[in-house]
Design a protein that fits this description.
There is one protein chain. Helix 2 (25-37) runs parallel beside helix 4 (60-80). Strand 6, helix 6 (172-183) and strand 7 (185-194) form a beta-alpha-beta unit. The protein has helices spanning 2-6, 25-37, 50-53, 60-80, 124-127, 172-183, 211-225, 259-271, 297-303, 307-327, and strands at 9-17, 38-47, 87-93, 110-114, 131-133, 158-165, 185-194, 230-236, 251-255, 278-282. The strands form two sheets. The protein has a five-stranded parallel beta sheet, with helices on both faces. Strands 8-7-6-9-10 form a five-stranded parallel beta sheet, sandwiched between helices. By secondary structure, the protein is α/β, with parallel strands linked by helices.
Length: 328
């Protein structure tokens, strides 16, 4: 057991119980340690009593900042250690949640833990794994809370929320977008996934995942993040998808980079006398920054965390391996 705790592991879980969702500094060190020690898959589950009280648009900014900080912190470490393809997922759970780990099956090797998780709904299968307690959240802070039911505004959710994208080699930027759509949805999320026929000009097209693989990855992640919702993951052949004809959609989630698409959707829905959509915007991130500090679409496109970068890395990795095989 002691040797397992000292060595790096293939797949790990990080459990974080935080006193509030506004002090992001308390999660940085535990995420850095867990991401450094993990090779291929890291599942970060953040517990807070805040999530027992509220969901929806009233906490949009705070939740987006929390998710972004966690993903950027873990991704920065992974890329520093050349673990470009490491899978990183961030889940948000209330302390009293009953959906902590149901259905999350994998050959986990270790559980990293920071903060007091006693009383949280940790699955029995996780409790049987080697546990390593990390510093990060002082235990005395876990008995207090910086919010109450009275200080939180009434949460607003939308029955049906839509978004779209290519979602190739699902990465942190995609997962933040998907997570925030699920966060404000009350019944269903519709995800339009760009059809293969529209991607012929993508860089390193041969490495791009097939449509069925991309759709499955999106659906699996969303069911992991918020199991209670219905998810319609459908191919799209234009920027509109179901938003171009479905009256039973109330909100649209886009990134700053794809904001012009939201304008096109609004114009088309107005022409068809469809109800207007409330638009929510996700900040574009890079692998090392939670805020790129610009609204220019071209700058955002070139600097963002992207599937193009992942495919480029995979291509170069394949070329290196080919040369090595030829020389041996």
């Amino acid at each position: 057991m002691a040797e397992e705790l000292l060595n790096d592991v293939d797949k790990a879980i990080l459990l974080l119980n935080i006193p509030n969702i506004y002090d992001l500094s308390v999660i940085s060190d535990p995420i850095t340690i867990a991401a450094t020690r993990t090779r291929t898959r890291l599942l970060i589950t953040i517990f807070s009593s805040f999530f027992d009280i509220v969901t929806g648009t009233s906490s949009w900014d705070a939740v987006q900042k929390l998710l972004t900080h966690a993903y950027v912190q873990a991704t920065t470490v992974a890329q520093k250690h050349n673990k470009i393809l490491m899978s990183i997922d961030v889940l948000l759970r209330g302390v009293q949640s009953h959906a902590t780990g149901e259905g999350i099956m994998d050959d986990w090797n270790m559980v990293f833990c920071s903060g007091n998780i006693e009383g949280s709904s940790v699955p029995p299968t996780w409790q049987s794994l080697p546990f390593l307690r990390l510093t990060g959240v002082p235990e005395h802070l876990m008995t207090t809370s910086s919010f109450s039911q009275e200080t939180i505004s009434t949460p607003v959710t939308y029955p049906v929320v839509a978004l779209g994208g290519t979602f190739d080699h699902l990465h942190a930027g995609h997962k933040i977008l998907l997570s925030m759509a699920a966060w404000i949805a009350g019944r269903k999320v519709i995800v339009g996934v760009t059809d293969d026929v529209l991607l012929a000009k993508k860089a390193h097209r041969d490495i791009l995942e097939p449509l069925v693989v991309r759709c499955d990855a999106v659906r699996n992640f969303l069911q992991l993040f918020k199991p209670a919702l219905v998810y319609d993951v459908v191919p799209i052949a234009d920027v509109y998808g179901p938003t171009g004809w479905d009256p039973d959609i109330q909100a649209l989630v886009v990134s700053k980079e794809t904001l012009p698409g939201a304008s096109s959707i609004a114009t088309l829905r107005a022409q068809k006398a469809l109800p207007p959509l409330e638009t929510f915007i996700i900040d574009v991130i890079s692998a090392v920054s939670a805020d790129l500090g610009t609204d220019d679409p071209e700058t955002l496109k070139n600097a963002k965390m992207s599937s193009t970068f992942i495919r480029q890395w995979m291509h170069e990795h394949q070329m290196t391996n080919t040369r090595s095989d030829a020389e041996s």
